[in-house]
Structures
1.
Amino acid sequence: MLVQTRRSAGPALGLFACMTALLAALGASCSRQDATIDLVAVGYASWRPTTEVVLDYEIPGHMDSLRRIVMNETGFQFKEGPAGVSFPEGTVIVKEILLAGSGDGYGAGPAYGVGGADGSRGRPNMITAMVKAKDDPRAQGGWIWLMKDPESGMESVVGQDLCYRCHLNANEAYPYADGNPAGQFRDFVFFVPGKDEPAP
Amino acid sequence: MAQLSLSAKINAIVVSTLALGLGAVAVAYTASVVRARQELTSDALNREAEILYSSIENFMMVGEAPVAIRFFSDLRNVGEGLQVGLYRRDGMGAFIDNETIETVNLNLMRPRFAPKSAFPERVREPERPYFDAAAGMPPETVQFRWEEGGRSYERLYRPLLNLPKCTACHGSDHTVRGVIDLRTDVTQFLAAQRSVVAFSAGGAAALLAALAALITRFIHTIVVRPVRSIGKVCGAVTSGDFTGRVEVARRDELGTLAETVNRMVEGLYERYELTKYVSRGTLSSIAGGQEPKRVQRTLLFSDVRGFTSYTERHGADAIVGVLNKLLDAQAGIIQAHGGDIDKFVGDEVVAVFSGDDAPYRACQAALDIAALSSRAAEFDGLMVGMGIASGSVVQGMVGSKRRADFTVIGDPVNIAARLCSAAKAGQTLVCDCSYDAVKDRPELSFSGPYKARLKGKAEAQRVYLLKAADERREA
């Protein structure tokens, strides 16, 4: 009886393949990006504004661009007590930059947001949002700070502390609306509904 | 592709596997060390930047800009490893003139701060494009490696924001007020890091070499050496040496294989010894099939003359000794001429020749056997008579299932036997069929034809007497 011994590189190749797959998986896990997020509802434009003040005055970050701030109904359930103002989980506040401004601010660019004679609004130059999710690892000060691309609708978390550090001033006296003269905790929100009258 | 030996393949697999495994571990270890160093440095820089940021913010809010200036001045020489600086958003060094003081006083509409008359030295230009990223929109904290004077630094640009509460003094027409510049000397860290990398690489290489040597040695002992031993024994058997045995005192697969090979060699040796007692035709029939077939053959019979009376005069040992010597001499001659010993029957030899020149070779063998008479003393005076016949015979296994001979049967066999009986000592009688086949050969000479009555044949047969060499010379 003749027995043919098949000489094969199979085991060695298998070993190399396993190690390569392991390294590839390791590399893939290291380079994996955050999944696409979708925290701002498509119909946010119909939400109620947080203030009636015309926000076209100059501020760091947005300069003199026209801003419009709206909030979902969850946010309007905020509570105010001795410790200050507190917005519930799930609150979403959206700030549209509608009118091109000058200077170095966010939203500078073509005047897409100029309204028509019939009161209709144009397309925003820029959309920013804050979402209350205090246990989310991406949150700063209990809020996730977002930018939403008006063209693609893609959302991205702002990892730097520009938004957070600026809104941190809302918890002490600041130059907007009523100015928070008592330095009350306002949960990082400058325009709390009902507190938008400028200080006398 | 060149064929690699088993040892080379094992070495290659062991070394490549270890290299991959240890290499991956070494790379992972080195990467983790480098990453840990980078993270530690980065964390320290960011923490220090945060402390500075908070310090500046708090000095400014209470209107203590001069304290902030002194604070930065003191920090500049806090230690050799850490250097601190502050840029305005336009890239100029902070506190180098009265521009900021004038702006603040203008925004406050009162001379809150008195202009200075002494200023620190101008600082060097910031590193771009890192600075532009830190002072642009959106402002980003930027960390980068920086080399100067043969030393390496991790450097961090931290944007200082123009917060809402800052706008009263600094105005609201900009978002970034300045950039904090922190640099820490990492030259020693990098040297240590290089040492770790070199040590890891060297250690991995040394470990690889040691493990490869150990594993290869181990595999060589348990696999390669037994395989080679088995191969050596098999090679010796191929060369006809059946004395070798595989010495593997193990109970694993290779031990079992070695035992099997040893048993196989013993069996082969027994079969090899048995081949001495059977004809080549028998051996070839075993390999080529045992079906009977009709073939052309030449038969050579030889028989010792006067052997019966010889046995009566000598003892058994002497008889067997002389007979074996004579039979062995005949067998050697027959095989030398390509004949096959079909059988020994007492003092008789039956040989079969095949092929086109079988009659010629049979006659040559008969002449050489007849020439043994010159060595008559060696065979105690015993001589043989021979008969040669050619023709169609049936060749095949004859006998029972338990014991059979591979032999030939047919009329030429009977004729050769009868001619052998009729031949006198030293004579070879040849049938006319064989004669016709060799009569034109100049090396052979015959006398005859003679008429011979053979047992079993109704008519007298024409036979020829093959002449011995000396007889030819005399003729």
Note: The mean pLDDT of chain A is 78.
2.
Amino acid sequence: MFENLSHLALQQYWWVIVSLLGSLLVFLLFVQGGQTLIYRLGKNETERTLLVNSLGRKWEFTFTTLVTFGGAFFASFPLFYSTSFGGAYWVWMLILFAFVVQAVSYEYRSKPGNLLGHRTYEIFLFLNGALGTVLLGAAVSTFFTGSQFSVNENNFSQWETATHGLEAAFNIQNLSLGLAVFFLSRVLALLYFFKNVSNAAIIERAKKQMVYDSIPFLVFFLAFVTMLLLQQGFAVNPTTGMVSMEPYKYLHNLIQMPVVAGIFILGVLMVLLGIIRTVTCFKTCSDKGIWLTGIGTVLTVFSLFMLAGFNNTAFYPSTFNLQNSLTIQNSSSSHYTLTAMSYVSLFVPIVLAYIAYTWRAINKTKMTTEELNDEGHIY
Amino acid sequence: MKNFKSAKRAGNNLAADSAMVVLNENFKYFGYGYFDNVHDAIPPIKATFYSFRIMVGLGMWFILLFIVMLTILLRKGLDKKRWLLYAGVLSIPLAYLASEMGWLVAEFGRQPWVIQDLMPTSAAVSHLTTGSVQLTFALFAITFTILLIADIKILSKQIKLGFKEGGAK
């Protein structure tokens, strides 16, 4: 079946899978957003423990999706992986450390004799939430703004700045997407708490917090989208493979790919509708916002990945040497590898069904403080 | 490969095809082009030799220990053999040691290749400064040492607290 597809078709298939995983990851970053809200919403130890346990039941979903996203990217587009991970080294190391401390913080936080005290682990959770979202957002934004690297004729890549990726965080457009992801993750976390936590005081504070996080999210997201649609993009000549700068490239991509434009507009509308309905009809709508905004997030991020990689666009542009930019054609695995991986990808729906099943089982009832006392495994 | 790529760039398909024939004929020796000296193709023998034997030796020890344990357990005398129980507890870290030795066999034994005959490790490493790698190593070492101490403290505390109905608290 897959072996009969052209190399380009397989590359496009895998770009779609990677994009889907990336967009699911951004939705699941609500765990990180929630971690940055522990002290805003929890004013005593019991309330904070309730919030941590509500998130603690989900953090592994995010973590596994992050690893799957990275793994799928590595296997399908290895030249991107070696260029970015070997080059933008310090950004990825910071992200890695942020996730190392997250994993242990959930397990150690409430255990007696945990050496550093529960507050330290809560700070670790905050750091993971803040660094993880901002840096991942900024890293994805470099798909549109480019990075300083070179790739030689033997496909060996080299980063051309001494800061090894940290410079990406000081670009206004990258920072805008990073902060948009940060505030979006907090909005998603609040919507998740409305659905998952039963505690009047927390919900009341979360209701106010919705406004404080939605406004900066909208400001940074709109700033990023405006810059994206007005900027020059990295166009690839489909015949020669030469890369050149094209004014309004991503706006052109949106116009030339009406399906992607439709997904993008639908996604943004769903994100906004989920937020607005939650704020305006709180009593009856508050626990439904997570699905509207969540699905909207997946659609929006998915369409951004499509803009970055499709329609003759370099998805990982080199600003050091345009001709070293990575496209889905010049950075992918071989036809054989992509074919073998495509057969494995047929199991993805089974994995998704399993995740949906476990999610439903975990989420059957809202979390209460009483439940914490009956729970054998407290985070 | 260089000839193939430059011919492709120039649009000379004939030259590209002939370069590809040469490449395919020699592809199985591709990685050897990175070596200046024949000795570069030999893995570190001593490290591989000893780590393999330590791993296998520990595996044999575990089999023996489990046979003795099982035999005495079936005779219902295990709780009276304190020396055997101590041997069991003291063998716990040996399992980690065996696992690490296995990794050393795999990683030393595969040298100098990351992809056998195609890409040596020396060609695959990132272009990072030694200082960056040293700093990362130090950060990992400090972080994981602190977390290990915390882990041991938590485990010791739980052992002292003992079992509670409904799970540990």
Note: Chain A has a mean pLDDT of 93.
3.
Amino acid sequence: MTQEVVEKIIDQGSHAAAELGERGAAAVQHAAEYGGETGVGFMMHHIMAQPVIKLPTILGIDLTITNHTVMMWIVSLILILAFGLSFRRKGLVPKGRMANALEALVLYIRDDVIMPNLGPKGKAYAPYLLTAFFFILLCNLLGLVPFAATATGNIGVTAGLAILTLLTVVLAGIRAHGVGGFLRQFMPHGIPWWLGFVMVPVEVMSLITKHFALTIRLFANMIAGHLTILSLMSIIFIFKSYFIAPFPLAIMVFSSILEILIAFIQAYVFTILSSVFIAGSLSSEH
Amino acid sequence: MELMTPNSGAIFWTILTFLTLLLILRKLAWKPILGMVDEREGQIKASLEQAEKVSQEAKKTLSEQAQILEAARRESQEILAKARQSAEISKTEIIQKAQTEAEQLIQRATREIQLSRDKAVAELRDLAVELSMTATGKLIGKSLDKKDHEKLVKESLQKIGNVN
């Protein structure tokens, strides 16, 4: 009897301890996530993805929907609505200001990004590149709106986009030269066979590095602007002075304007680099 | 650091969202827009070619017209020159005719005048002979015979002829 009671007590005790431990761990995690109200924690809170709907992890993929996921959906919805409404009527000339503006952007990407790099073969890849441009541009721009999040400031999002470009590049190469032809590109012509042991890993690395750089470039550019603005904002709270406030504010306004420019530049750079990579994969000599 | 590690969920949702967006926009936007632009470019190119053709045709027509105009001008000038020439010819003809007619008239008139003068002179001579005969008869009181008479007349006539 006493044995049972003791065992029960021990059991309960261990349960309680485990629960406490869990709570403690949760508290520590919470503290780590939010890190107080000022400083790094506050900035991280703004930049990092925040879960909106918790979903289970399936096949190692955490399906949790974050604010960045929601932002991507908002961006997609805006793009679908904008293009759908503007180009509802078929005609030779776009009707309405919105349609004209969108057509000008589309034509700019087609004539100055896709055609110079890919030529007439670019027609097949125009939908991918155009979608990438508009998706990234709107993600970048919406990230500047207060209370919104920058999806392209999430390295997972930029990695996803770079993976899609990598897949497009690989598929373009296979479509142009066949699987064998595509694989032969890793072994440049006119070198001794034994150099292949060096050249093939180098070429494979080069292919992956290019897209890794694509990931980091977009992510870093987006995050850097936000960190600058948030750091400047922190200055106001650190000094707690009305006399200091106007200076960071002025620079923040300037930085925000600069960020609008960067939003366009980075969308353009991602698109033009993607088209250059695809063009490299399409051309026979490598 | 969590900031720098790509989250598998973020990658998954990005790819899923992007591919869905790509499919929707391809049907909704890229195909209509690019098709429209291609069609427009084709039409502009066709219109330019058409305009070029029409302009060349117009140029050809213009040169043709200029040729026709030039030919017409030359012809009119020829006609004018011919007309002037023929007018000149008829003018000289008329003048010549008039001159000859006038000359003929003058000649005839002169002849008539001569004739009438001769006639008048003969009449006057006869009258003078008669007068002188009567006058002499009356003066002398006796008639001269025919022979003397004629002799006298001849003498006086010669005198008159000398005067004349």
Note: The two ends of chain B are 167 Å apart (CA to CA).
